[in-house]
Amino acid sequence: MEDTTAKNAPGPETCPHCNQALPAKKSPAPSQAQPGEEGPDIEALAKKVLPEVMKIITPLVEKLQEGVQQQQKELQAQSTATSDSELDFQERVQSLQQAALERMRGMEQKITNRLGRIQQRTGL
Predict the structure, then answer these.
(1) CA-to-CA distance for 47 and 30, rounded, in angstroms?
(2) How far apart are CA 110 and CA 98, in angstroms?
(3) Average of pLDDT values for 74-93?
(4) Which residues contact 20 (CB under 8 A, 6 or more apart)?
């Protein structure tokens, strides 16, 4: 039988797979700087890095703004094209209706002429 007291005894922990001793866990050191308080090294680094980052980001932001403006122009063009096509469609419908009315009047004229000839032949 195994001795259970040896397992419960404090000591270096071992890996359950390879039985090697694991390093002792260290408690994290409390940060010395309070939130919002940065050390002079961090502030100096921020002063150097921020302008460089802005130099890199500025052209990208400008390109993004140009893309947004172009997309807005395209959307406006599409909306006007859609309204133009709707107007074209309405104009076409009206012209077709007008043509149909003219054909109907022409057919009515032919029918009245034929009826007039028939009446003349029959003497009514």
Answers:
(1) 26
(2) 19
(3) 78
(4) 14
